Amino acid sequence: MRLKSIERIAVGEVLGKSVYDDKCQLLLARNVALTQNYIDRLKQASIQCIYIEDEISEGIEPENVVSQELKLKSVNVIQNVFKQATGKKSVGFDAMQVDQIKDIIDEMMEIVFSHRDTLYVMAELMGTDMYTYNHSAEVAVLSMLVAKSLGLNHQFIQKIGVGAMLHDIGKMKIPNEVLNKITPLSDEEMKLVKEHARFGYDILKESISISPISRQIILLHHEKLDGNGYPMRLTADEIPVHVRIVTMCDIFNALVSNRAYREKLNVDEALEILRAEAIYQLDREIYYHLLKVVNIYPPGTIVELSNGTIGIVIKENREAQTRPLVQLIVNNKKGDIVNLMDNLTLFITKTIEL
Ligand SMILES: [Fe+2]
Fold first, then answer.
1. pLDDT tens across 217-228, in order?
2. CA 258 to chain centre
3. Distance 197 CA to ligand 1 centre (A)
4. Where would I find the HD-GYP domain in this sequence (predicted)?
5. Distance 66 CA to ligand 1 centre (A)
6. pLDDT digits (tens, 9 = 90+) for 58-84
């Protein structure tokens, strides 16, 4: 099984994992052979990528940290909580709603702490309309994995998870036309978008069951170490570690997601951008922990090697992530298996779509 962009799907290809729409209802079940009608339906639901089963990816089982069920449940809860905040100045979320978020975080915590070896795989399977909710769930899991890698304690990580889950709740006060605009934002619109950090903080002001750590994340997740962030233009020492973690994971997840105004980047490209930014704007230590928990070339990724051959990653290499086990593809058929650990002159030049 492997992830493939919807634009490249041909009639007759077989769906590897079920696809859900923006109400978290089943759109297409796994194992179905795709007809033109199905492909059109997926495009209408603005689904960007799907898992397919094909000959070259046979036997590959992509392993995600969070199951599809938990992901859907999280997106549902986030959507409900966020929608309550739409257009409101301050919402006194009742304890039950906050508890729902905390319950999801607890389920995620269990997974994060039980999987010692699972690397985070980005898989955006929902339409772009769902971006904010999907993104919130992804940033929460990723932030918890990074926090765990940093050795932070259990309670602290849970609060980071809640803050990460709610970090963009302030966007509910910004019109969708502005958030999803394809053309560049005007100065006025940009100013409004930047207000979402403060809006989010205000929305949750009265919800006493949300800890100050989670609140700080909501208010400060766009601050940068060099003082060029917002809303308070804080500098290095003023920005606490829990905020730095979520800032890093937020930018990373945004880069590897499809947005209304641009195509997503591959994980390796996104990490390269973050590496450059980590020198001035982001925390370098946190960057190294992000590198440890993210799967750069998850099984099923099609790669081009430095000798011009094409292959599919069949197994990651935890010791050296850029040197996985690759099965060559010749004329759309499986070829030899190359262990990049044994062939140090050979390396991956880029990720491609096939
Ligand atoms: Fe944000």
1. 999 999 999 999
2. 10
3. 6
4. 111-306
5. 22
6. 999 877 777 778 888 898 889 888 888
